[in-house]
Amino acid sequence: MTDSLSILVVSSDPALSAEIQAALRGLDGARPVVHEAGELRQGAEQARSRTPGVVFVEMTTDMRALQAFAQEVRRGSPETQIIAVFRPDTFGDDVSESAVLIEAIRAGVRDFLRRPVSSTELIELLERSRETAARPLASDGRVVSFLSNKGGVGKSTTAVNAACELAVRHPGRVLLIDASLQLGVCAAMLDLRPETTITEAIREKDRLDPTLLRQLATPHDCGLHLLAAPRDALDAAEIDDESMSRIVTLARRTYDFVIVDTFPMFDRVMVAVLDLSDRAFLILESVVPTLLGGVKLVELLDGLGYPAGRTRVVLNRYTRIAGNLKPEEVAERLNRDVAHVLPYEKSVITCANTGEPFMLRSRKWFGYGARLKRLVDEIDALSEQAHPRNGAAVPAAPIIATNDLAENADSTEEFYD
Fold first, then answer.
1. How many domains does the chain fold into?
2. Nearest to residue 198, comparing CAs of 190, 187, 189, 42?
3. How far is C-alpha 103 from the chain's CA centre?
4. H/E/C letters for each residue in 95-131?
5. Which domain holds residue 107?
6. What sign does the dihedral 110-11-247-302 (CA atoms) show?
7. Burial, 15: exposed, middle or buried (Cβ in 10 Å; 0-12, 13-18, 19+)?
8. Phi/psi at 153 (5° precision)
9. What does the pLDDT average to over 233-239?
10. Mind giving me the DSSP string for 279-339?
11. CB 345 within 8 A of CB 417
12. Are residues 184 and 298 in the same domain?
């Protein structure tokens, strides 16, 4: 996940993936995530679902198959760069290697890598490819995920309210995906009764396009669209990491903003969502058991190579009572700044119970509403960072200093009605 770069290796020879992964050990810091496909058709499907930055495909003498593969990848994942890997003796003594390479370039191959794979050559190739591979298309929307280490901390409430506030600003351009597959509650919080869910989207994967995705999503009066969680555990079992990657990838090409509410369990589906997320908000409460779980989750994200700069810690339902951990104490234990503090407000829970999101009420200019608006401002700014006007560079939204949050938390007038 380093610098948004993921790699797909397409080869019937498992030794090629092993060579590439061994060569990647020469990279400084965390390494990109490597996926594998055993044949071209499977590779094209994975490229469409995962939109990797780079595809390494084993080159054979069958140039027509390579050309068909490259065309399929370009249709499904136009930003992916195709790198052909070959052995010098592949084509025989009577065939001009340069002529074959030129034909491969015409087929859509961007670069070449010789076997056995050299760590130096691979790293140089990735450095050439990194900037282009990591840059989103101009039409790509931003993906924001909300995650937690346990249930009951207000993750879904935060995701739904943030999505509603964003949709009020951008009607029809925000999709909320309820990826809490086993226990999704977003529809109930929005007082919606969806006729279709994410499972129908998976079942229609062969003909799924932006038009069909919008038809499968359930609209809300505020301008938000919801792709609801499966109806039951049996439907949820149909969804794996590859299908989730396909849904999120298509969603970001269909909507300007994609908000994903996740299930509080770290599995392959969660990794697939994070792999495509431009920002991940970690929702915590300032109680020791939840915080200890949060520490482990942060360590896990670091171990997977998920960039710390894309993670934001949100302290939810904060109250200044004796024994409650302060924001600076949470930051110290996590070894991460607390980006946002959302105060406890009883009416937020009441709204969740009645299916009327708090951020759609008029009284949102102080307390919880004002704080959540700052979080949404950060999400809103992601689009401008990705596509700055007039080509000007736009700095990332700064993380609010923990000390400032603690100081502002002293203002009970701002926190409570």
1. 2
2. 187
3. 36
4. CCHHHHHHHHHHHCCCEEEECCCCHHHHHHHHHHHHH
5. 2-134
6. negative
7. exposed
8. -100, 0
9. 89
10. EEEEEE-SSHHHHHHHHHHHHHHHHHT--GGGEEEEEEEE---TTPPPHHHHHHHHTS-EE
11. yes
12. yes
What token pair was written down for 216?
A: 């499968």
Closest CA to 312 of 279, 335, 352, 343: 279
For residue 345 the two structure tokens come to 């407000």
* Cα 395 to Cα 393: distance, rounded to the nearest angstrom: 7
Same domain flag for 320 and 186 = yes
Tell me what pLDDT residue 145 has.
97
Write out the DSSP string of 76-90.
H-TTPEEEEEE-TTS
Domain check: are 12 and 123 in the same one?
yes
Is residue 347 packed enough to be buried (19+ CB in 10 Å), middle (13-18) or exposed (0-12)? middle
Q: What is the length of the chain?
A: 417
Q: 201 with 208: CB under 8 angstroms?
A: yes
Distance between start and end Cα atoms, the chain: 42
Could you list the beta-strand ranges (E) of 122-172. Answer: 142-147
DSSP 8-state secondary structure symbol assigned to residue 347: H
Amino acid at 394: V
pLDDT, tens digit (0-9, with 9 covering 90-100), for 309-356: 899 999 999 988 877 889 999 999 998 999 999 999 999 999 999 999
Nearest-angstrom CA–CA distance, 138 and 266 = 31
Please identify, among 134, 150, 184, the residue that sits at the C-terminal boundary of a domain.
Answer: 134
pTM strictly above 0.85: no
